[in-house]
Amino acid sequence: MSDIKIASKVPMGQKIAFGIGMFANQMFPAILGIFMVVLVEDLKFTGLMWGMIYLFPRLFDAITDPLMGFISDNTKSKWGRRRIYVLIGGLVMGISYVFMWQIFKENTVQYNFWYFFFWSIIFYLGLTLFSVPYVAMGYEMSDDFHERTNIMAVAQWIGQWAWVIAPLFWIIMYDPEWFPSADVAARELAIWVAIPCAFCAIVPALFIKSESTLEKDYESLSFSNIGGSLKKILTSFKEAFKIKEFRKLCGATFFIYNAFMAVSSITFFVIVYKLFNGDAGAAGIWVALFGALGAIGTTFIVIPVVTKLSKSFGKKKAFMICQSISIFGYVMLYFLFIPGKPWMYIFALPFFSFGIGSLFTIMMSMTADVIDIDELNSGKRREGIFGAIYWWMVKVGYAIAGALSGVIIWLVGFNSDLPTVAQQGAVDGLHAFFCFFPTIGTVAAMYIMRNYDVSEERASEIRAELEKRKSEIK
To answer: What's the whole-model pTM score?
Structure first.
């Protein structure tokens, strides 16, 4: 172990401000996943339409992310590189989310599809404007190996409350005492979700400190330089992926997150049709509890445990331990989805939650370490580019995962208009995919990470070399 200590502690107020932004970053996709069921269940979108809505806006989002990373890294402003984009992106997300859900049963399916498709493109543009510079803010808040984990742990702890709150919408969306229909619920609840989330999104822009970059020697962002910028972005991609540790982080995240997301969209159907013979009203509380209890477990068990494991055993071992626990949870879910006994699945949730619940706490901290390696190699600080590339991998995979959820529904022959007894094989197929598809992704990710080698000792040596360079320049 190196005896070199790099101290760079971040005040709790700054961590909380960053974490409030994470709540918005998590709440929008959390509630979007719940509302999306309305498109199939109530507005009768086909599986193909479902897949297209997941695939194409996110592919657009994935294309714009690297460009946003380059722009964010090279912005000259008295407010710093990131804050103005976080502010604008938060506002665009909030406004577009409201408009996106103003769809009515009275309109044709085709009209509703294209209306939703258009506004989802605007929404994902706002998400790019917000999320890429926002994530980069977190990477550059500290250069200390363990403080980076602490920052991400606080942010993920706050962000997880989105996944506690969002499932509760299941209870009221399909309760006729609240709303006459789920599409009415989506239209009205979108307003109540978007406004507070937009305010949360702009908190980091208002309260996280950043230095002026007006005098920095950055790349030009003029329109005449767009072609050159795109070339430099491609060069940055190549340089980033030359770092084998970064390739491993991206690959492992791709498999875990997107295998999970491919089946998370069918949670509603698995619970309603596996446990309640297709009666959404009877299943409401249990659909909500699945997500809420899982998120509570992540908030109060997984994040504290993974933070402790990271400090005690290192980030890689913490990752391996948590993912192994999650596999056990997925297997339990297969056996504990028992018709007539919905409460049985609760026993699996604390274990199941370790997979996705620990992922970004560890991976975002590891990415910050890898950015130091890039600076050692290139002499540049490119948090925006690395954040964009990392989330590019997530979003491209998420687009594929969203399309896969539609394919899964089609493949097993599931029909939301039929009760379970009329399609038992299709419902059992959904349940099997729900439990074992994420298991396969987790095993693949663990294989990729088996020889990841950025330890605390190596990270300290890299930081020491960077500090030495800076002192020589001065």
So the answer is: 0.72
